[in-house]
Design brief:
Elements (H helix, E strand, L loop, with lengths): L1 E6 L6 H11 L3 E7 L12 H10 L5 E5 L5 H12 L4 E3 L3 H7 L5 E2 L11 H10 L9 H9 L2 H9 L1
Helix pairs in contact: 2-6
Length: about 160
Amino acid sequence: MKALIIGRFQPFHKGHLHMIKKAMEKYEVIIAIGSINVRNFENPLSFEERVRILRECGIQSKVYGIPDVHDDKKWVEIIFDTVGDFDVVISGSGWVKRCFKGIKPVLDPDFLKPELYHGTVIRERIVKGEEWEDLVPKCAFKILKELDFERRVRELKV
């Protein structure tokens, strides 16, 4: 069975890594990275940078980029046109669940401490000058450091 994991991975953190590895125990995993056409505080990394981090962290699944289109039905159509068929969606997003209602089953991810491992938490910690490095896998931190992720996040907060 094929499972589609949908996420923005802004940045890829330990919760994402745990979720993907758990899903891989049961499914052939396909990854759809969202918001590839948006660059702002919530989306500081490009699609290519996020794929690079996934690969550096040993995730070899097929990865597809999905743009934001602000039309739920069109967004789902783009996913099917881009990714092809799959059996289930794995996402904790209420919005994703609503978009796929009656189309494909949406399973909650096996997520590691979602209150801690969350992109918003990481970006806010960076802005406040707080520690955040322990929330991302070392493989991701290596690339994020190289990309000067902290500076980028701070500049985009303005």
